[in-house]
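Technical annex B. To support the medicinal chemistry partners, we prepared a structural model of the target in complex with nicotinamide-adenine-dinucleotide, based solely on the information shown next.
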Amino acid sequence: MKKISFSDLENKVCVITGGGGVIGSSIGLGLASVGVKTVILDLFQESADKTAAMIEKESGTTSIGVVANVLDKESLLKAKEIINSKLGNIDILINGAGGNSPKATTKNEFITPDNKNEFEGSFFNLDIGGFEQVFSLNFQGTLLPTMVFAKDMVDREEGAILNISSMNAYHPLTKIPAYSAAKSSINNFTEWLAVHFAKVNIRVNAIAPGFFLTNQNRFLLIDESTDELTARGEKIINNTPMGKFGEPEDLQGAVLYLLSDISKFVTGTVLAIDGGFNAYSGV
Ligand code: NAD
């Protein structure tokens, strides 16, 4: 009988964009634990190098930090040259760079008869530059690295890509229209890519994490002055049947599953990792 394991992943080379972030570094650690050589690609050299060093120390598996901007194709091409010369061909890509910004966030959840004349922080006064920045980071920031790094996979007719979606893709959360629209586009693009690459044996899937406390959402979920949950944070916990935020390590198993040959007939799916948030109607 064939034993099921993640051994097919050993010595594969995986690029993780936004790898210096909370979720990217935890996913990197999970992959390194089964012998995947990770490339921590981030906008900031320091966080890329620090994360790569942490992964290598914890796991004993090679990890390198590379700086690049997921919105700048030239910088991604330069990064690819460095990766190819240091580690060889790229087998796996995780499009992890993404996030929201206060500039693309409305002050109120609803327009009401009482606040309808407020302009500051309203939908009507959203900073269009901020909106574009969030949309591009999440959508083009997935498109461009895929254009650059999937080339090695196409050449060898083998590979796997994982995008990072969000609960917002299914039902938009209040206040964050740019992020919600962009993550919704990730689900659609995941399906498009899965079809486009299917004949050259490259699978494309996504994970949709529920709520994890990280740098990009802390300002919405935790009150800075008291360190207590905000009303929004409380609402999220009340609407998560498991009653808690996720821990970044909770994503590792699902990522290994989607990237390994264990799921070799799975492509074009988005897997929710959310403590039941998406399944719950609130009643
Ligand atoms: P994070 O802010 O901790 O990490 C994001 C990383 O991306 C940072 O290291 C940042 O430097 C890097 N980055 C930003 N812009 C970049 C660019 N232009 N080029 C290269 N790197 C860039 O955020 P996180 O919570 O770890 O988020 C990772 C992914 O998970 C994002 O796509 C996010 O939207 C998604 N996500 C997060 C949650 C959550 O609850 N935290 C939920 C669902 C989805």
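Notes passed to the chemistry partners:
The mean pLDDT is 96.
Residues 17-18, 20-24, 42-44, 47, 69-71, 96-99, 137, 141, 164, 166, 209, 211-212, 214-217 surround nicotinamide-adenine-dinucleotide (CB under 6 Å).
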